Amino acid sequence: MTIYTIVPEEQVFAEAPPSLSQVFEVQYQGVPLQVNYQGGRAFRVDRILSTDPADYMNQSVQPGVFLPVIHFEN
């Protein structure tokens, strides 16, 4: 892989900030989501990763919604 950039190598290959380590991809009610761990027993939906348009109409998985930890599938 070749990267053409004027950005210093230290910035391109820097470690991810701690907040990014809290991001996970999960399935909730059969919908693939990217969620951010909020501490305690909850995740916040950041993105819907599904290609099914119907999943974007589901109010229970909209970005910004908090989901309890116990509902996730492996």
How would you characterize this protein structure?
5% of the residues lie in helices and 31% in strands. The protein has one helix at 9-12; strands at 23-28, 31-37, 42-48, 66-68. It is mainly beta. The radius of gyration is 16 Å and the shape is elongated. It has one domain (19-71). It has a four-stranded antiparallel beta sheet with strand order 1-2-3-4, with no helix packed on it.
Count of the domains: 1
Mean pLDDT: 84
Count of helical stretches: 1
What is the number of strand segments?
A: 4
First-residue to last-residue Cα separation = 32 Å
Helix content: under 10%
CA-based gyration radius: 16 Å
Largest sheet: 4 strands, antiparallel
Widest sheet, order of strands: 1-2-3-4
Give the CA-based shape.
Answer: elongated
- pLDDT < 50 runs, ≥5 residues: none
The assigned structural class equals: mainly beta
Organism: Peribacillus psychrosaccharolyticus
InterPro entries: YlzJ
Pfam family, one: YlzJ
Protein name: YlzJ-like family protein
